[in-house]
Amino acid sequence: MKRTALIAMLGILLAFGAAGVSHGGTISGGSGWFSWTAGSLNEDNSPFWDGKSLDASKTNIGYLLNGSLGVGTPGYYGNASGGATTFTFTRESTDAQAGLLIEIAGWKNINEFGWYNTSGMASEVIFKGGDSAPKSAYFTPSEHYGFYFKTGGGNTYYTGGNANQFAVFSPDHKSTYYLGMEDTPFDSSDKDFNDMVVKISAVPEPCTMFLVGSGLIGLAACRRRFKRS
Description:
Structural class: alpha+beta
CATH superfamily of the largest domain: Calcium-mediated lectin
CATH class of the largest domain: Mainly Beta
Number of domains: 2
């Protein structure tokens, strides 16, 4: 029984170890991650995403993350001064998952979100106009990719080219990202980044799922043998 238990536990540990290296993608483009606290939220446009929303008081991306989304105060990616920056990703796992969390925008039935290949700019829709939150979708990006946001105003913004239209946050800076977007030009916007909020995370590789299953099967066999003895 002891040997079977050891094998089962080893399978589980391998599974969780493999799951731990499944990343949502390596971000690049800015100078680093910056911290903030709930107490620093005051709608004064500092950081750049802490604007006074025209939708309602205390509904910018910072309040949403720390409030209704239950994420807390994850670091945000920026330039040397903590301002907005362009950013793209290098793929770490084959498939990724996107979650449409919130849309607070007059164009929410028109706005479109997707990923694009940074080499050649080929793109693919993830959430189209008319999709309502909450909604999830899977996508398989190219090795080097970014995200685009096509708005009801006729503009298309890219994370690798339109820094002021995106704010990106991450609790661990590697496996899960939260993107807040502005669907009107930054200089004339309310800078609340709640027009669309999307969560990006990795999908575990098939070998990870196999290891998880193997570990659980081994554990079940161990339990049955223990009961017989």
